[in-house]
Amino acid sequence: MNSPLPNIMDLSLRDLQSSLTSMGEPAYRALQTHQWLYRHHVSSFDEMTILPQSLRKKFGEVFSIQSPEIIDHQVCTEDDCDAPTEKILLRLPDSELIEAVLIAAHERMTACISSQAGCPLRCTFCATGRMGFNRNLSSGEMTAQVSALNSVALKRSGKTITNIVFMGMGEPLLNTENVMETIENLSRRNYSPNLSQKKITISTVGIIPEILRIANTGLKTKLAVSLHAADQQKREALIPVAARQYPLKELGKALADYTAITGTPVTIVYMLLDGINDSQEDAKRLARFAKSFLCKINLIDYNPNINIEFSPVKRAASDMFQRYLIDSGLHVTVRKSYGTTINAACGQLATTVRDNRINH
Description:
Layout: H1 13-22, H2 29-38, H3 53-62, E1 69-75, E2 86-91, E3 97-105, E4 108-112, E5 116-118, E6 133-136, H4 139-157, E7 163-166, H5 176-187, E8 200-204, H6 208-215, E9 222-226, H7 232-238, H8 240-245, H9 248-262, E10 266-272, H10 280-290, E11 295-301, H11 315-327, E12 332-335, H12 356-359
Parallel strand pairs: 4-7, 7-8, 8-9, 9-10, 10-11, 11-12
Antiparallel strand pairs: 1-2, 2-3, 3-4, 5-6
């Protein structure tokens, strides 16, 4: 699958313009080429019929077109699924493996995509964090995940993707430049799927400089912050790398600045873990933290992973936690988890298991 020639899909639009100029070609050809890659999803330069044959020939001499390959596809078997949650395993041109998830629920078709191969943050509840970090994904590799999931959605239901979340493997705000380029690809007019940026969510554990950078870019995307504890010591135990580098007090100030600049609320994602962050005192701390900026709180259950020693919260504790936050005047939602039977739920994405079919 891997070609010795550089993959043109790893280039940003700006890089493509520079490459064409250096080849003696007009810069406007970059947008035409880009459209054929991300609107028409061509697999060869010969298919780019709008380009002169001489340019197509040049491209073939210096670049390749290499898209990720779906090598495994799983469908959830949960009895209470509104519609099947589907997970795909993709092999990248350099043989790195990543996972992406399609979630159908409440009139939405959401693509959950990865931004890194592995993750350097080592969050203790997350299967991806146990893999270690290999590399950032290019904008082309992230855009291609959406294209692959869109094809899956069309084949199964005839519907297309309506929402995108950067909530798969990796930390998006440790790969901000490529994430922003991907968002441009996904929301650019006359491209596919051509979504409003308001339908795209970036999920982060709280990389403060990049949160403020996103706030000042003019992007209309939503921001979700995985908090999981409003106590500094507990948060360091759950999210050791990010919590130590970006303490809660500083994170709260950054989120207040973000909401002041953008005028949009932040979603605080809080995974309830039995006996760890589910007490009334934990709820009080979360309420105090969340009242300092515009936000809504999304409570989610932990999905047991056989390699990680955490347990889902008990129903009584969950109800108490939710009621305390609501009584404190906060906007709270409880998010259903999808895809647990195929390890596609929050914190479960990892590509450590292989079988003969995948290895060959």
